[in-house]
Design goal:
binds magnesium ion, Ribosomal Protein L25, Chain P, single chain, alpha/beta, disordered N terminus, binds adenosine-5'-triphosphate
Length: about 600
């Protein structure tokens, strides 16, 4: 049986929603009309002005980057950033760099780095453009960053501060009070240079000094009050080992990474808005010449045009947390089975849950990119998945809460074959065959001994059609000593088979799904509910662990239609009436099927 795979291709017929608004495109369109962007040189690899000056014009119309820190698995929020950056690069015939922002040695691992590359590839993006393999590591720029720091010191724009951390905090001021200048602020550049070199050489203990930019301790923007740009930290780095005992601060490193890679637009989330003045201050100063007091001239390190930071709203999804630290806690506390637990909003979790790359891309397209923060309802994510899967998922029948149905008027060995379309809108995909016999499984909820009005399924005396099979009339049921129904009895009308001339003579309102006990395939099926019962589990100081939903996972023993035994892990089906299900990537194997419900057929989330 051919099955609908969990493949990265957008299948024909997948819905293309009208793209939501994206103000970043206005920014790009505006900039591309400026002459300086047309003539940008690109040497084919990152580097300072000396590398790029005189190089050929950049074949990429824009250069963007996706810069995760390899300190966790990517989540649905990162998917938005990936779609924004790689997506816009694709749309504008540009390039998007895959860059590891690995300047903070402590929590970064190879496992995380590999998982990030897998996630980006799985979403259908790549980083090779115009023949360049644009996979970069910020740690490869440590030597340049160090020289940029010396440059600032020589230009009188940075100093080594040896106040204690407490003094530094006290002198920083508050939102309403200006800060106080450090007593080290006016030390001669030569002295700062010597101390900075001593920091690098490992002559000072951790925390004994920091290098600070010299800007303005009275600035209303706290980030401009002489921010720290280098600190001493004896920590082993996954790529540079023990070569360094000083590491650049993120706010210093990031703009430099962008400039070395000739990024045109550095798109980031809104919380970096207050960092933009420092971003521009830093790059502006590194990209110009400086006259020194002794008459010497410092030559600009970086070339124009400089990258431009533009902020957009991060993705906030209701009932979901998107903080790597908190997700890490769910994993390490054993609240979920791992980073790829199908309840996790990580890309590996979504993938195991049954999300396809095209569904996630459709979701990102629908939410658009805006300049102000808002919450997106979880139903938007699920809606994208439904709309993506509906035209491509093969259909199958599964009974999730089985009770037996016995057709009393046929012999024990009675058997027939029924058929149904693989997909109701793709006749060319053919049909599936399954058997029917005397003993079937139906959903327990499809029978009621004493039903309310408008119940059109099975109850004594009522007729229904067994979908793709025969019309039956219910005659009663068996019950155990607790009153629980153990079997439903019916008579089958053998001249009523679907697709035969007799079928039309029976008029029934109910149409039930069922599987044949003789050939049904057993499976474990995991049904998921939201992981948190609070719409905003971690907002305004709440402890997100308090709202963990204890019933977020239920596992049932189900029966699947004939022929489902050779399902491969990752295959996705619509189980009629129940929703979309994926054969679990980790636990499912032929003969030992495990399915995850990706999403129900109808929205049960939105209010
Ligand atoms: P966390 O704060 O959970 O550790 P992070 O945002 O700091 O995550 P990074 O590895 O620095 O993680 O993120 C890489 C990129 O993804 C950044 O450019 C960041 O702005 C973006 N990003 C992270 N979370 C979101 C989100 N919820 N919505 C949109 N973009 C996001
Ligand atoms: Mg970060």
């Amino acid at each position: 049986m051919s099955t609908a795979g969990n493949s990265p291709k957008t299948a024909a017929g997948a819905p293309e929603a009208a793209p939501a608004s994206n103000f970043l495109k206005n920014v790009i369109d505006h900039d591309l009309a400026l002459p300086e962007y047309a003539a940008r040189p690109w040497a084919g690899k990152p580097g300072p002005a000396s590398v790029h000056t005189g190089a050929k014009a950049d074949p990429a119309r824009i250069r963007l980057r996706f810069p995760p820190e390899p300190n966790g698995y990517l989540h649905v929020g990162h998917a938005k950033a990936i779609c924004v950056n790689f997506g816009l690069a694709e749309e504008y015939a540009g390039a998007c760099h895959m860059r590891f922002d690995d300047t903070n040695p402590e929590k970064e691992t190879e496992e995380f780095a590999n998982s990030i590359l897998d996630a980006v590839r799985w979403l259908g993006f790549g980083w090779t453009h115009f023949g360049d393999d644009n996979l970069y590591y910020a740690s490869d720029y440590f030597e340049f960053m160090y020289s940029a720091a010396e440059f600032l010191i020589q230009a009188g724009l940075a100093y080594v501060d040896e106040q204690t951390p407490d003094e530094m905090r006290a002198n920083r001021g508050t939102l309403t009070q200006p800060g106080q200048n450090s007593p080290y602020r006016e030390r001669p550049a030569s002295e700062s240079l010597a101390r900075f070199r001593a920091m690098r050489a490992g002559e000072l203990p951790d925390g004994a000094a920091v290098l600070r930019a010299k800007i303005d301790m009275a600035s209303p923007n706290m980030n401009m009050r002489d921010p720290a740009i280098y600190r001493i930290k004896r920590a082993h780095h996954i790529r540079t080992g023990d070569a360094w005992c000083i590491y650049p601060m993120y706010t210093f490193a990031h703009p430099i990474e962008d400039a070395l890679e000739r990024i045109t637009h550095s798109f980031c989330t809104l919380e970096f808005e207050d960092q933009r003045p420092f971003y521009d201050w830093l790059l502006g100063n590194l990209a110009r010449d400086h006259e020194l007091p002794d008459g010497k001239r410092l030559q600009a390190l970086l070339g124009h045009p400089l990258p431009k930071q533009v902020e957009f709203a991060r993705l906030n999804l209701s009932y979901v947390i998107t903080s790597k630290r908190k997700l890490q806690q769910l994993v390490s506390d054993g609240r979920v089975s791992g980073w790829d637990d199908p309840r996790m909003p990580t890309i590996v979790g979504l993938r195991r849950r049954g999300f396809t790359p095209s569904a996630i891309r459709l979701f990102c397209q629908r939410i658009g990119v805006s300049k102000s923060d808002s919450w997106i309802d979880y139903s938007v994510l699920e809606g994208a998945l439904r709309d993506d899967l509906d035209p491509k998922a093969h259909r199958a029948v599964a009974v999730l809460d089985p009770v037996q149905l016995i057709l009393d008027n046929v012999p024990d060995d009675w058997s027939d074959t029924c058929s149904a379309p693989v997909h109701p809108h793709h006749e060319d995909w053919g049909t599936r065959q399954f058997t029917i016999g005397k003993r079937l499984w139906i959903e327990a909820e499809d029978f009621m001994e004493d039903p309310p009005k408008k119940f059109f399924r099975l109850f004594p005396g009522n007729r229904v059609r067994l979908r793709y099979g025969y019309v039956i009339e219910c005659t009663g049921c068996d019950k155990d000593e607790h009153g629980k129904v153990t079997a439903v009895h019916a008579q089958v009308f053998l001249d009523s088979k679907s697709g035969t001339p007799g079928a039309d003579t029976y008029k029934v309102k109910g149409n039930l799904h069922w599987v044949d006990q003789a050939t049904a395939v057993p499976a474990r099926v995991r049904l998921y509910d939201r992981l948190f019962s609070d719409e905003h589990p971690d907002s305004s100081g709440k402890n997100f662990l308090d709202s963990l939903n204890p019933d977020s996972l239920t596992e049932v023993r189900a029966w699947l239609e004939t022929g489902m035994s050779d399902v491969k892990a990752g295959d996705i089906y619509q189980f009629e009436r129940h929703g979309y299900f994926v054969a679990d990537l980790k636990d499912s194997a032929p003969g030992k099927l495990v399915f995850n419900r990706a999403v129900t057929l109808k929205d049960s989330w939105s209010k």
